[in-house]
Amino acid sequence: MDCNNHYDEKFSFLIMNSYRCSNGNRVTESTIKRNIRMAKQLKISAVHGQPKSELSGKNGIIDCSHIISVKYAKETGRTELCWSQSNIRFLTREEHIKHDNLTNQERERIYKEWNEIETFGI
To answer: Does 4 reside within a domain?
Structure first.
């Protein structure tokens, strides 16, 4: 699950529904969807038992939420964030709805903070 597709850059305009990754490569919408599905399955399979909110620790209806939205990741040429484990976290449905109403600037701040916490002490 990476952006190492080997499209010839001079023909990239021919690739319908493709999006740029931060390394300059392009991926198709179908590849993005497949990679997101696999990333969510991987995250869920890594949990022993019922997932809990990574924000509050609550149980209930738990969603896999993107910190940086899929739409914004594609728009900003960082499509690999769509399936990156560093951009997916478990939230309750209520937390997810609240998160979806944040601005892109707020989401960028949360992404940076979240990943500093995740890598702290490693």
So the answer is: no
User: Would residue 85 count as lying in a domain?
Assistant: yes
User: Structural domain of residue 91, as residue ranges?
Assistant: 9-119
- For residue range 94-117, list pLDDT tens digits in order: 999 999 999 999 999 999 999 987
CA 38 to centroid of chain Cα atoms: 11
**Predicted model pTM:** 0.83
Non-local (6+) Cβ contacts of 105 within 8 A are none
Residue 1 maps to a domain:
no
